[in-house]
Amino acid sequence: xxxxxxxxxxxxxxxxxxxxxxxxxxxxxxxxxxxxxxxxxxxxxxxxxxxxxxxxxxxxxxxxxxxxxxxxxxxxxxxxxxxxxxxxxxxxxxxxxxxxxxxxxxxxxxxxxxxxxxxxxxxxxxxxxxxxxxxxxxxxxxxxxxxxxxxxxxxxxxxxxxxxxxxxxxxxxxxxx
Length: 177
Known about the structure:
Blueprint: H1 4-27, H2 32-48, H3 57-88, H4 97-102, H5 105-111, H6 114-124, H7 130-137, H8 141-162
Helix pairs in contact: 1-2, 1-3, 2-3, 5-8, 6-8, 7-8
């Protein structure tokens, strides 16, 4: 077994000499983008198994490429079967699960000004503290607290309006650091 430098130099020569042949082999069997992937995978196998590459490497490389192509053919067939299975599934109409769970909160958020949406997202979705959110927005934590209060008030009003004026239970407190 050679040293890492010897293997690297040998691989470089192998790649330079035989890449075009392996690519042509693959192109005669599959489309261009797949042929390039097959060729790359073939040389990846060659790199990993340099000690097994014979002195006359082209037949060995073609054998590897042939197996990579077979794997790709099986993968594509599985993908086609899955796509067919999915296509045969009945389409269900109505609100999706996320809308039922969130109660269409996206619609309510969309009605808020962008500054309010961003502030609420930073705190609720990105899980930032008010001090961290203030840094992101380029303001002082005290300023952010006022903006947060106003954003929550506008959000509560929209939620109440959407729910037919039922009082909402939106928490007043937030992580403060």
